[in-house]
Amino acid sequence: MDHYIVSARKYRPSTFDSVVGQKALTSTLRNAIASGRLAHSYLFCGSRGVGKTSCARIFAKTINCLNPTPNGEACNECDSCRAFNAGNSMNIIELDAASNNGVDSIRELVDQVQVPPSMGKYRVFIVDEVHMLVSCLQRFSQDSRRAPELRHIHSRHHREAQNHTHHSLAVPDL
Q: pTM of this prediction?
């Protein structure tokens, strides 16, 4: 049981080219990277299993890659890519907001926003089920706007239920 890996993680795509069924999203993200026009926040909406977190991880890895390929993929050879692939990246933080929505978790998240990237250009926060953190989104956004090297990506299942504050923080909305 020590080596058991959930199949969704074992077979998770690791490049934009390997993402299936999200051509519009991957093209949009590649264009943003190529043009150097990255928003502070992105909101990925969709039902379970469509690739929200996978695309967020690929995007985060690629914007921090020190030697991206000409077709907009991460090189998988630089220190930043190797750290990400090994699960040791200090620049890319994943948080499941459904499980980590207590006061202490929120304080820790706000404290982490203040830390600059250790390697690469950006510090990226991938927050799954972000609607569970609506109470702290305003503070999180204010702190991140003061830190130009910070990016955050939010994902949720139901776009219809999002509140106005969250929607206004996520531009462009993908």
A: 0.78
